[in-house]
Structure prediction request, 288 residues.
Amino acid sequence: MDISLQQVGYLYGKDTPFEKRALQDVNATIDSGSYTAIIGHTGSGKSTLLMHLNGLLKPSEGVVQIGNAKISAGTKAKGLKDIRRNVGIVFQFPEHQLFEETVEKDIMFGPMNFGVSEVEARRRAHELIELLGLPPEVAQKSPFDLSGGQMRRVAIAGVLAFNPSVLVLDEPTAGLDPRGRKEIMDLFYRLHQQEKLTTILVTHSMEDAARYADHLIIMHGGRSVMAGTPEEVFSDETKLAEYRLGVPRSVKFQRDIEKLIGRTLPGLALTEEQLATAIATAAKEGGR
Ligand SMILES: Nc1ncnc2c1ncn2[C@@H]1O[C@H](COP(=O)(O)OP(=O)(O)OP(=O)(O)O)[C@@H](O)[C@H]1O
Ligand SMILES: [Mg+2]
Prediction:
């Protein structure tokens, strides 16, 4: 599903003394099947933007288009049900939303609410437990008896149980150890490719944005201020610094090495692997 935002503005507590503008004149396009990372300093409006992608929030100004559905300030809640089913959101610390007595029931809850049969919901729950690398016996355990990382996986399974075509992730690995982070990010990437999902990731990690995304949107002070491929965005260090953002570690290393050897390496090293290849190629050429 193609997604676009046209001149979207959002005010929390509109027309109250606590009115607070969180988004202003946001324009963005997210192509169907793309992997888009949204980056920006804390408070720049990323989570507020995400909540517009499944109708949890309606724009105060402008239009959000998701597939054929257009959402604006006046859209009725009834028109949003299909969108909620197609767009799955994994919030930051999603484990706070676990509530059923067993893991199995927690994962089955959403789909059954949307009319999926109990047998089918249970089958899908067990499939997801395996997919997320959890041992099968957790199905009958209370979600609250699991480790933090396992609870996170159960909560993610609960979102995937809907078979969404758009998967929205708000810092899905915050607070996990490095190994758990990588496992989950790799899993999302595999799902993105296998299920041909449209994936939208909010992250503070420039490394993750560079490694996984093919399209970046930069938020600053509630506005969308920059967009492009990771190569385009991370080539412009000066502009990123204006938004208090940096480049991935591999790009920093590349620039340091270029200073030391007095020439530029070809391309932009978005990952450590790409940097290793660029250095190896330069070393071979240098030896000739
Ligand atoms: N429920 C709310 N009521 C009032 N203001 C809010 C509310 N939620 C967020 N805000 C404000 O809206 C702005 C954008 O917040 P948002 O949570 O979207 O930022 P963010 O980019 O997700 O930040 P972070 O990286 O810290 O998660 C901030 O100024 C914030 O204080
Ligand atoms: Mg946020």
Remarks:
- The mean pLDDT is 93.
- DSSP finds eleven helices and ten strands in the chain.
- The CA atoms of residues 27 and 157 lie 31 Å apart.
- Residues 46-47, 170 surround magnesium ion (ligand 2) (CB under 6 Å).
